[in-house]
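FIELD: query
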Amino acid sequence: MNFTLGVFILANKGFPMSFDLAPLLPVLIPKAIEWAEQRASEISASGEPLDERGLVLARQVGVASPEKIRLSFVTQLPLPTDPMLLQAALQIGLLGPGMIGLTLGHGIYICRDYNSNRLLSHECRHVQQYEQAGSIAAYLPDYLQQIVQFGYTSAPYEVDARAHETDA
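FIELD: result
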């Protein structure tokens, strides 16, 4: 079974392929926080620290504690097992085919073969946003609300992260 078909089958268990996420946020946010905190803990335990290039990039985009950042290089980003959370993440474009990076607190997943200064600077800017918020539990409700309200590419946190991307 290919990845896309597998995601479709998982995502379609009892949920329409498209649904209004705004009224579901009170249910989805605690699930998302729990999932994100678990993944962040895994990255913290087994991830790689930034090299000198990464430390410089992180500082350039405003990260206060770049030494806390850990990277996990994966073939594909992890997906939630909760069907509703999975469907929501796929629907808003947060996870799924085509996504190559994901930041959860000081933990960053990067898909192998896509590691670049541009991607790392983008993800490090998300680390800075998490630091400003204070925690995953404080950041995710705002981030998810922005995505539901404005769409993934127009969400203010994403616009900000893209504005801080650099190839240098």
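FIELD: remark
Residues 1-17 have pLDDT under 50 and may be disordered.
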